[in-house]
Amino acid sequence: MNIYEQDLPKTAANYTALTPVDFIVRAAEVFPNRLAVIHGPIRRTWAQTYQRCMQLAQALRALGVQKGDTVTAMLANTPEMIESHFGVPAIGAVLNALNTRLDAASLTYMLNHAQAKVVLVDREFAKVMQEAIAHAQVKPIVIDIDDTQYQGSGDRIGTYEYEALLAAQVERAAQEPIHFTGDEWDAIALNYTSGTTGEPKGVVYSHRGAQLAAISNILEWDLPSHVVYLWTLPMFHCNGWTYPWAIAARAGVNVCLRKVTPEGVFGAIRDYNVSHFCGAPIVHSMLVNAPEALKKDGMSKLNGRRVQAMVAGAAPSATLIESMEALGITLTHVYGLTEVYGPCTVCSPQEGWDTLPVAERAVFNARQGVRYHLQAGADVLNPETMQPVPRDGETIGEIVLRGNIGMKGYLRNAKATEAAFAGGWFHTGDLGVRFPDGYIKIKDRSKDVIISGGENISSIEIEDVLYKHPAIMAVAVVAKPHPKWGETPCAFIELKPSAQVSAEDLIKHCKQHLAGFKVPGAIEFGELPKTSTGKIQKFELRKRSGAVNAIDV
């Protein structure tokens, strides 16, 4: 034992577990009267928001929720979703935010796999959730949330109502505030990702990783104190890239947006002085292609100030960058996966880039960039030797990541976790190159995941459904470029001898088994290209669909 290991203990005075739950505690202490939430007519301060989070925590405890229990949320971008990011983990429970676009069968699988104890459900999604629960082995406690901004149909299906539960805990929450007392390696959230198999994997986040990812997002964007953040990115997607926690850390304003429309985005920028927002390329394209009068009105009060927007997924084109800049919006390109809390690399601009012509600048901005501040490593390795590829911008390898911004692993799937972390790196399955300046660029997706409107779609899941049709001999699904969604599934079909079926019939078949956004947007018939061993050559099919040119530019 050396002298620095003697009489220097870790105690309550010099060590506290890292957790993003503490961010809201500080926001309420330091800026209690500062605006925290805007949602329709609702205006709440940080003190009020913190109080509601504590009421939620006490309500869940009263219902028997304990450390390690799963609290599932089927919610839109509403104040209740923000509150769940603090109230649930405060008591050591795990927040499982579900994709609101999923079908009942997928939801049933997730409820069972996560062993859901409680389900928070917005009235808009009550019907599909009711069907999912009816077929689930678990029978969770269901809490209804009736958002005043939702004007559509939908019945309450729960035993409890959210506001009533919170109201019953006002006094206790005020007298007995809850502080997270667990370990920073404890699970804070569970997010499902399609991956490359039909069954989604449950990605488990830790309190430590969530806090460090949130802090990294603040650093990468120089996120200012009292930022006004517009929720265009779904909070179910990697916990909103950890921004529910990051905005609390900066005591900013959460501008909730239940449905993303050009009118909603430009109206929020105009009315609430929005400074930042995130989204898939489809969101930015939607804004660029909005009516000129709407754009002019929405950006009329900026007075020279630029709005900052973060984009992930497909690299922004020169046209998109130029169009967004003309609007008064600056794009920051990031890259990541569910397994790394959303973004973990950023195309950090270098001095001199802003003086380049927009087409030349787009070449640099198309790269996925360099590691986040609190991510220990990002590299491109030869998958066989696990050695870095030459930094020549040409030699292809697998993009790998390691460090603080990484999942604990896949829930109840030790084999997949071990494979993902083989060799001390997280294997993304994305193929890329590294340039002399260290910046990484994706060249292809080895996982065959289709990214449509910012959502991951498993090609194998679609193929499994199509194989159930009696007329199909062979099928392969790849990405097809789409002007609105970025990519949509394209199915190449080889029929059995003498079999006949129309594309319309196959689309109808898919709709019976898949969520709408997973249904192929195009179907092509013919013999599929195969190797000498009979393996379908998806690379050739990507050429036919245009996917290779869309990615490898």
From TrEMBL:
Coiled-coil annotated residue ranges, if any: none
Alphabetized Gene3D superfamilies for the sequence: 3.30.300.30, N-terminal domain of ligase-like
GO terms, molecular function: ligase activity
InterPro entries: AMP-bd_C, AMP-bd_C_sf, AMP-binding_CS, AMP-dep_synth/lig_dom, ANL_N_sf
Domain AMP-dependent synthetase/ligase: 26-411
Family named by the database record: Belongs to the ATP-dependent AMP-binding enzyme family.
Name of the molecule in the record: Acyl-CoA synthetase
